[in-house]
């Protein structure tokens, strides 16, 4: 964009990085000798440091949630529709933080970073990170920023899983957990889609077993395919029909294998433009974090048991046309919270955009958030 | 304390303090909000309408968006002290199934509904019309009330289903209770309130 910054936008923002000199041992047993997290903040932290909200990003998201990093940016941050002055997540009232998760490719330590033991990029040697590892490192960042307790931890999709994990790992540090379009664990179908994406990347001849940086190439075909596949799961049958139908680019079929249908052209474009924005190794890591997420596992597969010590109040939101993490998956979390007598409100928003609906403006969704956020505001101490 | 319909006050009197309550078709959440304040209950409302979900959040109650016609599959047996359903029974398709579900999930059920046996309804029918009264304000073709019953009908159903009636209260449309109502409840009561249990 933008010739001028819209009034309801937080405006120009720039990220900061915090470097941690201490080693951290991850859930998988691997140790990183040091790491850094890049993050953005919006709004003012109050004097009690009690109005902070942690935003957790999803698979291909990053620390840039709202506003613009420069006047040359074509688009604002990924949740700009919901975070800003006077918006449901109101930057006039709260202090928002979002960091690029460990293993990411937007400035936090990840596979593209230098491995101090080899002085080469980590590449495939970057250890597997889990949702719990992200929560741990986000808590370390909160400590550095002087935030003992978040008035809310919020996120959609994989971000919602972090919001759930936060309430479990740090019951005293989260007052409200807002879990949107998420699931308490992946289904076999979800894992299947992730595996196809991983195979697309790792079977690309340019992948070089994850050390493609050294060869000055990127596995373009692999990332593109992974993104095209992922993109289909973010949309719904209905929204794809409405957007593309069977529309042909040239108005007729040509009996060849060129891009003929509009939907093919759209998916190719989405895949192509992702290649230069996202690192293949990070994509692999994020899909593994999704596959492994299962907070009930340590508790005999009993989610209610996993949530027993949770103190946060929960708002759970799903979208009717989301088949990646369908409403039933949200209801599993709601049921576990009910069974342990936790405070939970659940709304199933009518939306036809599929999983992507959590990012898209929608009045019903906004109204739920506006009303719930009044309680979050009341919780600011 | 905010002003509240007498029907809701009666329900509050029936409910033991600190109990766990499920309110089916909770509307804007007024009853649960009142019970949270007056009886310190832990409660959840179940509601389908989007605007009512927002209003329930505004009323500071826990509300779950769901269609109770689909049953109460998300709720464990005997997981609530009371399952309440006010002025909803008559608008359900599977009334008897939901009553059974209420008493599966709750140790006791509380239901309220408009009494179709009230003399005004009877008079309307006598003159050849489906009743339109203050308690039943809709015309026959657009009413949400598809399963209307009289007190006697409801009590027959309870007998058939082996539900024990623990308490009954009959009120007029101002939700007042008076001696006349109790003398000829099926004729004079406009709103019926029952507290029931599985035998």
Note down, in words, how this protein is organized.
The complex is a heterodimer of chains A (381) and B (199). Chain A is 33% helix and 15% strand. In chain A, strand 11 (152-156), helix 2 (158-169) and strand 12 form a beta-alpha-beta unit. In chain A, helix 1 (131-144) crosses helix 2 (158-169) and helix 4 crosses helix 6. The longest helix of chain A has 17 residues, at 363-379. With 381 residues, chain A is of the alpha/beta class. Chain A is built from ten helices and 14 strands. Chain B is α/β, with parallel strands linked by helices and 199 residues long. Chain B contains eight helices and seven strands; from the N terminus they run H-E-H-E-H-E-E-H-E-H-H-E-H-H-E. In chain B, strands 3-2-1-4-5-7-6 form a seven-stranded mixed β-sheet, with helices on both faces. In chain B, helix 4 (95-105) links the parallel strand 4 (80-86) and strand 5. At the A-B interface, helix 9, strand 14 and helix 10 of A face helix 3 and strand 3 of B.
Summarize this structure briefly.
The complex is a heterodimer of chains A (about 375) and B (about 200). By secondary structure, chain A is α/β, with parallel strands linked by helices.
Distance between the first and last residues' Cα of chain A: 38 Å
Q: What portion of residues of chain B is helical?
A: 25-40%
Total count of helical runs of at least 4 residues of chain A: 10
User: How big a fraction of the residues of chain A is strand?
Assistant: 15-25%
Flag low-confidence runs of chain A. Answer: none
Features:
heterodimer, A: 381 residues, alpha/beta, Rossmann fold, Rna Polymerase Sigma Factor, Chain: A, 2 domains, eight-stranded mixed beta sheet, two-stranded antiparallel sheet, 10 helices, globular, B: 199 residues, seven-stranded mixed beta sheet, 34% helix, 24% strand
């Amino acid at each position: 964009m933008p010739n001028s910054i819209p009034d309801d936008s937080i405006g120009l923002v720039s990220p900061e990085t915090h470097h941690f000199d201490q080693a951290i041992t991850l859930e998988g047993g691997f140790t990183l000798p040091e790491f850094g997290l890049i993050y953005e903040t919006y709004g003012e932290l109050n004097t009690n440091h009690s109005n902070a909200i942690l935003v957790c990003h999803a698979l291909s998201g990053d620390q840039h949630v709202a506003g613009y990093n420069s006047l040359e940016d074509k688009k604002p941050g990924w949740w700009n529709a919901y975070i800003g002055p006077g918006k449901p997540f109101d930057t006039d009232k709260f202090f928002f933080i979002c960091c690029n998760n460990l293993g990411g490719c937007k400035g936090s330590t990840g596979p593209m970073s230098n491995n101090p033991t080899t002085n080469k990029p980590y590449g495939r040697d970057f250890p597997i990170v889990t949702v719990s590892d992200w929560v741990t490192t986000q808590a370390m960042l909160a400590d550095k920023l002087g935030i003992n307790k978040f008035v809310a931890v919020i996120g959609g999709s994989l971000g919602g899983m972090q919001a759930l994990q936060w309430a479990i790992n740090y019951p005293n540090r989260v007052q409200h957990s807002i879990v949107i379009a998420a699931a308490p664990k992946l289904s076999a179908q979800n894992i299947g889609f992730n595996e196809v994406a991983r195979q697309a990347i790792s079977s690309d001849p340019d992948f070089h077993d994850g050390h493609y940086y050294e060869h000055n190439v990127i596995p373009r075909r692999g990332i593109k395919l992974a993104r095209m596949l992922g993109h289909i799961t973010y949309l719904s049958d209905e929204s794809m029909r409405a957007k593309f139908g069977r529309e042909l680019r040239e108005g007729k079929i040509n009996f060849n294998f060129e891009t003929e249908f509009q939907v093919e052209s759209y998916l190719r474009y989405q895949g192509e433009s992702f290649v230069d924005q996202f690192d293949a190794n990070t994509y692999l890591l994020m899909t593994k974090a999704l596959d492994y997420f299962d907070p009930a596992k340590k508790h005999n597969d009993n989610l209610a048991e996993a949530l027993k010590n949770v103190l946060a109040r929960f708002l759970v939101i799903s979208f009717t046309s989301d088949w990646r993490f369908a409403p039933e998956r949200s209801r599993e979390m709601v049921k576990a919270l009910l069974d342990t007598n936790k405070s939970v409100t659940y709304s199933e928003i009518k939306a036809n955009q599929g999983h992507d609906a959590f990012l898209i403006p929608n009045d019903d969704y906004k109204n739920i958030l506006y009303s719930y956020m009044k309680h979050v505001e009341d919780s600011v101490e | 304390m905010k002003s509240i319909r007498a029907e809701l006050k009666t329900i509050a009197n029936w409910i033991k303090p600190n109990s766990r309550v499920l309110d089916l078709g909770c509307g804007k959440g007024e009853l649960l909000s009142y019970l949270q304040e007056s009886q310190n209950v832990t409660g959840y409302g179940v509601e389908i309408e989007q605007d009512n979900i927002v209003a329930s959040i505004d009323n500071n109650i826990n509300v779950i968006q769901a269609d109770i016609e689909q049953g109460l599959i998300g709720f464990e047996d005997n997981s609530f002290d009371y399952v309440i359903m006010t002025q909803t029974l008559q608008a359900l398709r599977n009334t008897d199934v939901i009553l059974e579900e209420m008493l599966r999930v709750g140790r006791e059920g509380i239901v309220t509904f408009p009494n179709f046996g009230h003399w005004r309804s009877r008079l309307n029918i006598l003159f050849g019309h489906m009743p339109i009264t203050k308690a039943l304000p809709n015309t026959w073709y657009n009413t949400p009330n598809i399963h209307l019953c009289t007190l006697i009908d409801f009590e027959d159903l309870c007998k058939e289903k082996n539900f024990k009636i623990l308490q009954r209260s009959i009120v007029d449309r101002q939700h007042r209770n008076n001696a006349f109502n109790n003398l000829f409840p099926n004729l004079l009561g406009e709103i019926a309130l029952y507290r029931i249990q599985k035998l």
